[in-house]
Design a protein that fits this description.
Blueprint lengths: L1 H23 L7 H9 L4 H24 L5 H15 L6 H14 L4 H32 L8 H22 L4 H18 L6 H9 L2 H33 L6 H14 L11 H12 L4 H17 L1 H18 L1
Helix pairs in contact: 2-13, 3-4, 3-6, 3-10, 4-5, 4-14, 6-7, 6-10, 6-11, 7-8, 8-9, 10-11, 10-13, 11-12, 12-13
């Protein structure tokens, strides 16, 4: 009951934040009516082109998944990605449900539970590493372009360095040097026990078990993991930039990069399904802070999220249905 109560509290708080953000965006000069009109006037060619770029990004990302699970084909990797995302984007805190669905798929294709566990650790950790290192890249680009608002440079730089530092710990752990990360996990575990006054959460033990044997896989496949993730980020950035070009809003590329990094980083806080509401509000706030037109920022982010979040639900549902049909036929 306590766990359910905490989940309800998290969802209630997140929903309240989203509602508050939607109301107060108007104070920043955002016009919801104008934003929707900018999207509605696109016609059919732009959505089709943006859809191709979105799908191409998913195809490139399958390289990360196939490298994380030897023997997995690119077609099956795409099915895993779409089906898991569809579940995660529908259910609150749905990442676990998506993982369970993917486990059933992988076991049906002949892989073991241990192989799947390593697959999840390596693929998710590589995604996390990219999300943690990219803020430093974005801040560097903004510094070169002198686009960081006055008075916020130190704060932005400290946040980026903190993210990169944690990303370095995760990278070292995947390469077989897990002691620094495990010490941090052990410290967090002890703090949790003191706060709760008992009850070992088992974080350190679980982290040790999950990291066992991943270093050999990462050392063999680091090149595929790296270029696959890099290609995915490039195409995601292209999709965000083209989403703004489609509505005739032209932003400098460092600002586009900062918006992309904010959107990707905020997806880690997936309290609502797929981080819906939280991600959009945070990304729009970052773009406005960097000088973007408020209404244009709203329209561009909504158009971008229509592909990376909304489109994954029906497309992922179709992929899941085809997998179920194929399994039944077999």
């Amino acid at each position: 009951m306590a766990v359910k109560a905490r989940r309800v509290a998290l969802l209630t708080g997140a929903a309240g934040f989203v509602a508050w953000s939607a109301v107060h965006l108007g104070d920043l000069g955002v016009s919801w009516t104008q934003a929707w009109r900018m999207i509605a006037d696109l016609g059919w060619r732009w959505p089709l082109f943006l859809g191709v770029v979105w799908l191409l990004g998913l195809v490139v990302h399958t390289t990360v998944l196939t490298a994380s699970l030897p023997g997995l084909s690119h077609r099956r990797a795409l099915t895993l990605n779409l089906s898991g995302s569809a579940v995660s984007n529908v259910l609150p805190l749905g990442g676990v449900a998506g993982t369970v669905l993917n486990l059933g798929m992988v076991r049906g294709w002949g892989h073991t539970g241990l192989e799947f566990a390593r697959f999840v650790v390596v693929s998710k950790a590589w995604d996390l590493i990219a999300k943690l290192f990219m803020p430093l890249v974005a801040v560097g680009a903004l510094l070169v372009a002198t686009a960081i608002p006055g008075g916020h440079l130190v704060l932005w730089l400290l946040c980026a360095l903190a993210c990169a530092g944690f990303g370095g710990l995760v990278t070292a752990a995947l390469l077989g040097r897990a002691t620094p990360l495990l010490r941090l996990v052990a410290w967090a575990e002890r703090a949790w026990i003191r706060i709760r006054r008992g009850g070992d959460p088992g974080w350190n033990r679980a982290a040790t078990e999950l990291l066992d044997g991943t270093d050999s896989l990462v050392r063999r496949r680091w090149a595929e993991l790296s270029w696959g993730m890099a290609g995915y980020w490039v195409l995601q950035g292209a999709l965000l930039w083209l989403s703004f070009v489609a509505i005739h809003v032209y932003l400098p590329w460092p600002v586009i990069l900062a918006g992309l990094v904010a959107e990707r980083l905020l997806t880690l806080a997936a309290i609502t399904p797929g981080g819906a509401g939280l991600v959009e509000a945070g990304t729009i706030a970052v773009l406005i802070a960097l000088g973007a037109d408020p209404t244009g920022a709203l329209a561009g982010v909504l158009l971008y999220r229509a592909f990376v979040f909304v489109a994954e639900i029906p497309v992922g549902g179709i992929a899941t249905a085809l997998w179920l049909l194929g399994r039944r036929t077999a």
